[in-house]
Design brief:
Blueprint: H1 3-26, H2 34-50, E1 74-76, E2 86-87, H3 90-104, E3 112-119, E4 122-129, E5 132-138, E6 144-146, H4 149-152, E7 170-178, H5 181-193, H6 202-210, H7 215-219, E8 224-234, H8 241-250, E9 260-263, H9 265-278, E10 286-293, H10 296-302, E11 312-316, E12 321-333, E13 338-350, E14 353-359, H11 363-369, E15 372-373, E16 376-380, E17 388-392, E18 402-403, E19 417-419, E20 426-428, H12 434-445, H13 457-465, H14 480-484, H15 491-503, H16 509-515, H17 523-533, H18 536-541, H19 544-548, H20 555-566, H21 568-579, H22 588-591, E21 599-603, H23 611-620, E22 624-626, E23 635-638, H24 644-652, E24 655-657, H25 659-665
Parallel strand pairs: 2-11, 21-22, 21-23, 23-24
Antiparallel strand pairs: 1-6, 3-9, 3-10, 4-5, 4-7, 7-8, 10-11, 12-13, 12-16, 13-14, 13-20, 15-18, 16-17, 19-20
Helix pairs in contact: 1-2, 12-13, 16-17
Bound molecules: 2-(butylsulfanyl)adenosine.
2-(butylsulfanyl)adenosine (IVH) binds near residues 228 and 312.
């Protein structure tokens, strides 16, 4: 393809992808399947790699992140990013209002305020130059932040180009980037399964994602953003906060829909109470209300103190913390066999919920926090369903408190438990451990895995109690009579369950791989594995090297997949699933080629074949040819005089092929 055709195609692809992004993310009515979308996206990525100078800064490919950075570049804010003074009581709010009136010399009348939810995330600044997102920074110390542009480009809420014909020449926006509760909880669950310490709250998780040197990791955490203030702006005047919010919302920027105008403190108090009551049902975590003088001329007149403006205040909700006693510390076993400590607490009320258990994450953390049975502790609920122990009130110790030690054997089945190298977690090694079996069946049937409608905790527990299942394969041999033994089961319900089980036999291969519950293999990785290997048999026979050529698969994941399929018990379960008629289907694209999802890089002088022809060959087989080497490169094909790319590949442990070896690998394909 020549430059000119490439340019035309790139413009067309960018337009199409943006259109489909809008349909998907904003209008919630996608027209393309994931695979169709991926095809467009990959084509654009490849063209941009082949013609790097044709890639524009607002290209949607920026949304998936790029190779890791060494460090972040510091950036000085054009205007300092201030913080806010806190109010903890209604009295504090009234004093704030009085100070403002005094400062403005007002003897009567009320101030017009804007009330906004105080998001619990990380303050960031976005800079749009002539409508194009050119820079995104963290707040840092308020004077100097860090350039996190690549990471913030992965946030789908943030337009890369303002959809307005005449955007202002310069528009700086401040806002809060946050991680909504659903992905926050998912992330923490994953971390616990991997034996990593979970994030204490969504703010830490968001900050961790934004300050990731590897933007591809950020891309996997679905951050969101609400804009709340202008920075430096040229070519546009806002007369008030409401004017600002409605204008930028019109430019496609997300602003919090719960924002309200409130004239006088009585209305502000009303808003604070109402928002406090809905707090628990919001899909994201807030920690208070930010109250701002609406008029910008008045804001200017009020000015600022050293670190915070006089025209705004943050009225915080009381923390969702409570003091209680640890009655016992018990060990609990999860799906992957991780044995974690859990504190049984004297029941205590925490913002409307009675709490009687708190997770202690892992045994190391338990030791670090030195939590003992009998201790008085502070527990906190921070956007999580399961509360955590914040710290021990050691002043309440009497000397009779008892430290807990990790169990020597699995608390459920009594088998051996061990610490896997490189992990903090302890695991039960018995794959038939009832706790693991229970969790693995629930996972297998769950909506994002095999999607067996109705097969939740309750029925799985009954199946286990009646000894009707021992592994996931047994689900497929259940009969109507089996179900009829359940408490309160009717004909109709039993039939529905049977139909749901039968209906799951032909799920997509990616779902099936995910459903197997291989450690470290999440939904996304499972999809990529399905695409790369096409069948379970191919996957189970894959060598570690072959596995490593798949995007997102590193040594730890490859090792986990290998040992899963080496386990005779797992092999038997898969064979029995097959016999029962479970035959996951690979979509067309998945069958496309042997190298789907695998990235090749060519370097040096190639004498045995033509570079373009070789790239085409790779692409025919579903692979992808890239220009530079990274951890995710599957193979580097090195000709004569290969230089820095070869060195880099070696240092990263990327497989290096000679031309000859490449040809062998491609055997069966037409020789270039
Ligand atoms: S306005 C000068 N509005 O709270 C005004 N801040 O405690 C700057 N925050 O650093 C901030 N939601 O990270 C504003 N609706 C909102 C906010 C908000 C959360 C955070 C922000 C700021 C911190 C100050």
């Amino acid at each position: 393809m020549n430059r000119e055709t490439a340019q035309d195609r790139i413009v067309k692809l960018v337009g199409e992808i943006e259109h489909h992004n809008r349909l998907y993310y904003q209008e919630d009515r996608p027209e393309l399947t994931d695979t169709e979308y991926d095809l467009l996206f990959r084509e654009l990525q490849e063209l941009e790699q082949r013609f790097p100078d044709l890639a524009t800064p607002e290209s949607p490919t920026g949304r998936v992140g790029g190779a890791p950075l060494e460090r972040f570049t510091p950036v000085r804010h054009r205007r300092p990013m201030l913080s806010l003074e806190n109010a903890l009581t209604e009295q504090d709010l009234l004093e704030f209002d009085e100070r403002i009136k005094r400062f403005l010399g007002m003897t009567s009348g009320e101030i017009e305020y804007v009330c906004e939810p105080k998001m619990d995330g990380l303050a960031v600044e976005l800079v749009y130059e002539r409508g194009i997102l050119s820079l995104a920074t963290t707040r840092g110390d308020g004077i100097t932040g860090e350039d996190v542009t690549r990471n913030l480009k992965t946030v789908r809420d943030i337009p890369l180009r303002l959809p307005t014909p005449d955007p202002p020449p310069l528009l700086e926006l401040r806002g809060e980037a946050y991680l909504p509760l659903a992905p926050f909880q998912r992330l923490n669950q994953e971390r616990e399964e991997n034996g990593e310490a979970p994030f204490a709250n969504p703010r830490n998780a968001a900050a961790g994602a934004i300050r990731q040197l590897d933007s591809r990791i950020t891309a996997r955490r679905p951050l969101a953003l609400f804009c709340y203030a202008p920075g430096e702006v040229e070519g546009q005047t806002f007369i008030s906060q409401t004017d600002f919010l409605t204008t930028v919302a019109g430019w496609g920027l997300p602003v919090n829909p719960l924002t309200r105008q409130a004239v006088g403190t009585a209305r502000v108090v009303e808003y604070f109470r109402e928002l406090g009551a809905t707090r628990e049902s919001l899909p994201y975590e807030i920690d208070g209300v930010v109250i701002k003088v609406n008029s910008y001329p008045l804001q200017e007149e009020l000015g600022e103190k050293a670190r915070s403006p006089r025209w705004a205040i943050a009225w915080k909700f009381p923390p969702r913390q409570a003091t209680t006693r640890v009655e016992a510390i018990v060990a609990s076993v999860g799906r992957t066999g991780v044995v974690t400590p859990v504190a049984n607490l004297k029941p205590v009320e925490l913002s409307g919920v009675t709490v009687s258990r708190a997770t202690l994450h892992n045994w190391e953390e338990l030791e670090k926090k030195d939590i003992r049975v009998g201790d008085t502790v502070i527990v906190e609920r921070a956007g999580d369903v399961i509360p955590a122990v914040v710290r021990v009130l050691t002043q309440h110790r009497t000397g009779s408190e008892k430290p807990a030690t990790p169990p020597q054997a699995c608390p459920e089945c009594g088998s051996e438990i061990a610490r896997i190298t490189g992990e903090v977690a302890l695991r039960c090694l018995n794959l038939s451990c009832p706790a693991q079996v229970r969790q693995s069946i629930i996972h297998f049937a769950s909506r994002t895995a095999m999607d067996i409608d109705g097969m939740g905790n309750r029925y799985v527990d009954q199946l286990l109690r009646l000894n009707l299942v021992g592994t996931v394969a047994d689900l497929y041999t259940l009969t109507r009579d089996d179900f009829m033994q359940f408490d309160r089961m009717g004909d109709k319900l039993a039939d529905n369950l049977l139909t749901a089980i039968q209906g799951s036999k032909e799920r997509e291969l990616g779902r099936f791989i995910y459903a197997l519950g291989i450690r470290h293999v999440g939904e996304q990785t499972a999809k990529l594995l399905a695409a790369a290997f096409g069948t379970v048999e191919n996957l189970s026979g894959a060598t570690e090297e072959e596995l490593l050529t798949v995007r997102e698969v590193g040594p730890q994941v490859a090792e986990s997949i290998r040992s899963f399929f080496e386990n005779p018990r797992n092999r038997e379960i898969i064979a029995r699933l097959r016999t029962a008629g479970v035959s996951p289907t690979a979509s067309e694209r998945q069958l496309g080629g042997r190298f789907t999802g695998v990235t090749f890089v060519f370097t040096g002088t190639l004498t045995r074949f033509n570079r373009e022809a070789a790239k085409e060959l790779v692409e025919q087989e579903g692979g992808h040819a890239a220009g530079s080497v990274s951890k995710k490169t599957g193979y580097l094909v090195a000709g004569d005089d290969a230089g820095s790319k070869l060195e880099k590949a070696r240092s990263l442990g990327v497989r290096v092929l000679s031309e000859e070896e490449f040809l062998t690998l491609m055997e069966g394909a037409e020789k270039p």
